[in-house]
């Protein structure tokens, strides 16, 4: 087992924009959706994702805030090993426009035309409790 820190993982995660966010559905299944982390790459155990408050994902989080995130980096790049990160954590739904502004990037305007004033906008904050990583040779786990 390797002994990486969250700062080490942040460097390796720098170019990963998308994660699969998995929730527990009301029917007991696992629902997964691709979500952009908006290039917030200084990973400290918290991730942020924007969505609309009427989605099934938000309903799942309201019922059970325990979620999973999956990241894949360096896939398909010749000469580089793939890098996988699996996060277990707790999601919090934020409706505060000041928090929206703190995590907003212009790339989000494509999805949310009225910016932080988009009706029904919600920010999902995921606080990791456990992070597992693999890079083809090393693997390890960080308890946050």
Give a description of the structure.
The chain contains three helices and seven strands. By secondary structure, the chain is an alpha+beta fold. Strands 1, 2, 3, 4, 5, 6 and 7 form a seven-stranded antiparallel sheet that branches. The longest helix is centred in the first third of the chain and has 8 residues, at 6-13. The radius of gyration is 16 Å and the shape is globular. The model has no long low-confidence stretch (mean pLDDT 89).
Share of helix, binned:
10-25%
Oligomer category = single chain
Shape: globular
Mean pLDDT over the residues: 89
What distance separates the N and C termini? 17 Å
List keywords for this structure.
single chain; 144 residues; alpha+beta; seven-stranded antiparallel β-sheet; 3 helices; globular
Tell me briefly what this model is.
By secondary structure, the protein is an alpha+beta fold. The chain contains three helices and seven strands; from the N terminus they run αβββαββαββ.
List the helices and strands and how they pair.
Blueprint: H1 6-13, E1 18-24, E2 30-36, E3 46-52, H2 56-63, E4 66-73, E5 83-94, H3 97-103, E6 121-134, E7 139-143
Antiparallel strand pairs: 1-2, 1-4, 3-6, 4-5, 5-6, 6-7
């Amino acid at each position: 087992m390797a002994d990486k820190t969250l700062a080490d993982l942040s460097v390796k995660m720098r170019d990963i924009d998308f994660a699969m966010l998995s929730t527990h559905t009301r029917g007991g299944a696992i629902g997964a959706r691709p979500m952009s982390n908006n290039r917030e790459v200084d990973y400290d155990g918290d991730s942020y994702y924007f969505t609309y408050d009427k989605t099934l994902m938000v309903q799942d989080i309201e019922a059970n805030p325990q979620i999973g995130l999956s990241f894949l980096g360096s896939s398909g790049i010749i000469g580089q090993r793939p890098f996988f990160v699996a996060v277990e954590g707790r999601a919090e739904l934020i409706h505060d426009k000041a928090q929206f502004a703190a995590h907003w990037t212009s790339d989000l305007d494509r999805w949310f035309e009225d910016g932080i004033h988009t009706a029904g906008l919600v920010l999902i904050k995921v606080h990791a409790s456990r992070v597992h990583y693999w890079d083809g040779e090393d693997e390890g786990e960080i308890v946050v």
